[in-house]
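Support request, priority: normal
Reporter: lab tech (M.K.)
Component: structure prediction queue

Hi team, I submitted a job for Integrase core domain protein from Metalysinibacillus saudimassiliensis yesterday, and the status page still shows it as pending. I've pasted the exact input below so you can check whether something in the sequence is tripping the parser. The sequence length should be 447 residues. Please let me know if I need to resubmit or if it's stuck on your end.
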Amino acid sequence: MHTINYETLFKQVKKGVTYRQIAEKQNVSVRCVTRMVKRHRESGSIYPRTKSINLHDAYDRQLIEEAMYYKQLKFDSATGLRSLTQQEIHEHLQTKQSNLTFYKTKQLLKRATALLAESHLHMHHRPGERVEFDWGTLRIKIAQTMTTVHFAVFTFPYSQYKCIYAMPNQKGESFVKAWQQFIQEINGVPPHLLVDNMSIARDNHAAKEGDTIITPLFKQLMNHYGFRLSFCHPYCPNEKGNVENDVRWMKQKMKGCKQPNFESFIHLQQYITELVEQANKQKHRLKQDTRNQLLQHESATFLPVPIRKFSYFEETTRKVSRHATIRFQGNEYSVPEILKHETITIRQTKSTIRFLFENKTVATFSRTNKKGRRHFKLWHHLRTLKKKANAFQQSEAFRQMTRLEKKIFHHVFKSDCHEFLNYCSKIQFEPKKEMKRRWTEWIRLRQ
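Reply from support: The job had stalled in the queue. We restarted it manually and it finished. Here are the results:
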C-alpha cells in the first residue's frame, strides 16, 4: 500500500512548486495535494481527519442530541419560516464546546439526520383483519383520446390479494360501484375497511382538529354492509403501505403496456382483470400458499353480503335564495316560494335530484351532467307569476312547462294568463291528477 508523506508534500507547497509537479514527483493525485492545503487552511493540520465522533462518549452523544434539536428548529425571518444552515448550527454548538470544528459539526449533523429519518415497523397481519383501499391516477389513451383513469385498489394485507377497477373519477358514485364489484368478486364483506382522509369518506371541512366526521355516504354504507371504517393519520401513507405498493405496481404495469390504446373502459377493465388474476395466482413472498389460497383462509371472517341491494344516493344541504332557487353542481333549481331563506336537504341519485324539507320531498328534478342550466317549475312560483301575469309567457317557468300544461294553457284557457294561473293556484296540491282530468274533460266536450 502506497504511503503518502504529507510533510514532504507540504514543504514542496511552501517552496512554490505547482500542485501538478508535486503530484507527478510524489506519485499522488492533484486532488490529494489540494485537499491537504484546504485542510491546513481550515484546521491547521495537514493530516487527514480521523473519525471525530465517539458514540460511546456521553459528551458526544449529548452533542448529537443538540444537533437533532437544531436540525428540527425553524428560524423565523422576514422572508418566512426556514431551517437553520449548517453554519448557524455550528455557531450554536460552539456555545457548548468552544473548540468544536466545522468538520465535526458536519459529522454530528450527518448522525442527527440519520436518527431523525422515519423508520417503519414491519406489521404482523391476521387473516381477514382488514382490507386497505386507495385511489391511483394515470393518463391512458382510450378511443384515441388521452383520458384520466382512476384506479380503485383494494388489498388484503395478510394474503396480498388485490382487486383493481378502472373508474372515470373519484366521486362517491364511482366508489360505490367499485365496492359492489369488489364484494361480489370475493363473495363477502370485509369486517374492517382502512382508507386515507379522502373527502368522500371524511368530512375534512366540518371536522375540527383531532375529530373525525364520517360523510353521510359512508354512514349509509356502514349501516347497510355492517363493516367498520378507520382512517390513516394525515400524511402517513405507510399505515396502508400494502395498497400503496399495489397502486405503484398497477401504474408500472400500465406504463409498460404494449397496447397503447384501448377501445373503451370495458376493454381497459378486461386487460386490468387479466393482470390482477395472474398476480393473485403467484405465491406469497413470505408464505407457501398462493394469494388465492390465502384469501380462502380470510373468507371465514367475512360478513355475508346483504340480500337487499344498496341504493346509492348522496346528501348535502343548501340555503334557498330570496328568488326561491338553489345553486347546486353548477345549475340553478327552483323550490316552493314558501321556503325562501330556509336550509333544505339535497338528495341525489344516479338519475334524480330531490329537495327535502323536514324529511318531506318538496321538489324533484332529473339529474343532468350539463352546467349553467336553469330548471324551473310552474308550481314553485305561482305567487310571483300571478303578480306579473303579463310577463308569464316570457318567463323560464312558461318555457319549461310540460307538454300537457302547454296544451291546457293554449286550448282550454285560450292563452289567458290570469285564468290559467288562478286555475293552477287551486290545483297546486294535486297538479298532475287535476291537469289530466281537465284535459280529458275538454277532449270529451270537443267530441
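The two ends are 121 Å apart (CA to CA). Residues 315 and 347 are 5 Å apart (CA to CA). Let us know if anything else looks off. Ticket resolved.
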